[in-house]
Design a protein that fits this description.
Blueprint lengths: L1 H40 L5 H10 L1 H10 L6 H19 L6 E6 L11 E2 L2 E2 L9 H10 L3 E5 L2 H11 L3 E6 L1 H13 L4 E5 L12 H8 L2
Helix pairs in contact: 1-3, 1-4, 2-4, 4-7
Amino acid sequence: MLSYQLDSIFYFIGETVVILGLFFLLSAIIGSVLVIYSYKTGHFVAAGLMLVIVSVLESPIKSVLKLTKINEDIVDDVGIHLRNYINRKKFLRVPKEERIIFIPQCLRSTKCPAKLTPEGIKCLNCGLCGIGEAKKYSEDQGYKFFVVPCSSFIKRIIRKYHPKAIVGVGCQMEIKEGIDMCHGIGLPAIGVPLSKSGCVATKLDWDMFRRIISE
């Protein structure tokens, strides 16, 4: 009798594992299709649900794309645009004077003469990179503009100035983490990905940056 009961339990567990495995596989395939569609068209289907799928099943979706010979990096690209899309309406309702822009220090010239302060790198507008011009353009519109070396500076500046919205520039991973962090504290955030990532001498499409912050 006991043996029969144990067999039944193990059978149920095995059956459940198989069903869950099939469910996650199907969800990953659906997620992959949605990612490809969004990447090619710029449109999102059920954006909130799609963000949950992409966030929870990011690794399986990337594996599915890799098996089909599709660049798995599009998952990160779509993830950023999806987060921006969801945050955009709330972001636009915030006056520019209550928004803060964070720029990573890796965009600086390797010959940058600016020094580190408690509020990040203080740009001297030396003309060796595009940050000085972008800072003036941003501040003319009302933004507060900071060049920061790490996330601890971002948290410190947010605590000090209490912005109502954030624009963050960075690599894909930094942007995803930053937007999710802002979501956790109730701040709408828009991410602007670097066109060339790295530790130094990175690149940004400054025209795209200006279009985004001008909204």
